[in-house]
Amino acid sequence: MAQAPVAPTHSPEELPELPEAFDGKFPIRVRGVRNAFGDHVIHENLDLDVRRGEILGVVGGSGTGKSVLMRTIIGLQIPDAGEVEVLGSSITDARDDEDIDIRSRWGVLFQGGALFSTLTVAENVEVPLREFYPEISDELRHEIARYKVLLSGLPAEATSKYPAELSGGMRKRAGLARALALDPELLFLDEPTAGLDPIGAAAFDQLILKLQQTLDLTVFLITHDLDTLYEICDRVAVIADKRVIAVGTIPELLALDHPWIQEYFNGPRGRAAQDAQARHEAAQAAAGQDPEDDPAQQGA
Ligand SMILES: Nc1ncnc2c1ncn2[C@@H]1O[C@H](COP(=O)(O)OP(=O)(O)OP(=O)(O)O)[C@@H](O)[C@H]1O
């Protein structure tokens, strides 16, 4: 196939320089980021804007630097160059992640959940509450933790369980409960459905969608899961060639003539996900149902 240059849905000229007054429209803004480990350059001149209230899927081949980008945005990885602004605050100007005073305004679900194995689910959820709100009473902290556990779709009994006693899907939900502990505005999810069976993954997708809508979250979601992209992502950012080569809806990305994008979305798995989405929409249309009212979209 002839390779036309990829037209990103934004070009660097269209992205205003930072800093400028934060108007809330783009809670995450990344400009010209470079990350390298020794000679291994991961990102070069990477730009990205995340819109308020969207679920942005982030895709790319293994090792293209999706997790490193997430770590850069939340201040755990200091880039060699470039600027990162989150909710109007510069992350790159901070001396270390402790210096970032907006840390309580985001929640993170790391790959594998990253739960403390010696703490119960409730105690895990209480960790950020203890850190950021040491003044609240034990009783209130327990109550908030219990509420977040239920919000994440776990039964009340799960609060007293240890991570080793939970299934993979339950551990993800426990990690999600902890990510939601501080009522964040931004939610970062690193491969949330990895390792889940298809039914568990679909339920987790719907949980994320429901929480995003109910809590008015902006979600940065790293995934390899095509069903997740089709089901819940408003836009998708593609990382390749050390930068974000395109951001757009899936139809917009499908129109681009980039080999990785074409292979990813139009390969056998991509087509299967497209077909599944088309069948889902046709079933809704046949039932005269507005997709917004679909019970499958409402609960997990
Ligand atoms: N602390 C580190 N020290 C050295 N190299 C690192 C470090 N963290 C990440 N890397 C390297 O950076 C590259 C990008 O890693 P990253 O985990 O961001 O990839 P990814 O796109 O999330 O991959 P995957 O889809 O497989 O999870 C990899 O080659 C990885 O080995």
UniProtKB/TrEMBL annotation:
Nucleotide-binding is among the record's keywords: yes
Domain of life: Bacteria
Keyword terms, alphabetized: ATP-binding, Nucleotide-binding, Transport
Molecular functions (GO terms): ATP binding; ATP hydrolysis activity
Pfam families to which the protein is assigned, alphabetical: ABC_tran
Record-linked PROSITE patterns: ABC_TRANSPORTER_1, ABC_TRANSPORTER_2
Domain ABC transporter: 28-266
Xref: SMART domains: AAA
Acidic residues bias: start-end ranges: 290-300
InterPro entries in alphabetical order: AAA+_ATPase, ABC_transporter-like_ATP-bd, ABC_transporter-like_CS, P-loop_NTPase
SUPFAM superfamilies (UniProt xref): P-loop containing nucleoside triphosphate hydrolases
Region entry Disordered, spans: 271-300
UniProt cross-references to PANTHER family, sorted A to Z: PROTEIN TRIGALACTOSYLDIACYLGLYCEROL 3, CHLOROPLASTIC
Name listed for the protein in its UniProt record: ABC transporter related protein
Protein source organism: Novosphingobium aromaticivorans (strain ATCC 700278 / DSM 12444 / CCUG 56034 / CIP 105152 / NBRC 16084 / F199)
Taxonomic path: Bacteria, Pseudomonadati, Pseudomonadota, Alphaproteobacteria, Sphingomonadales
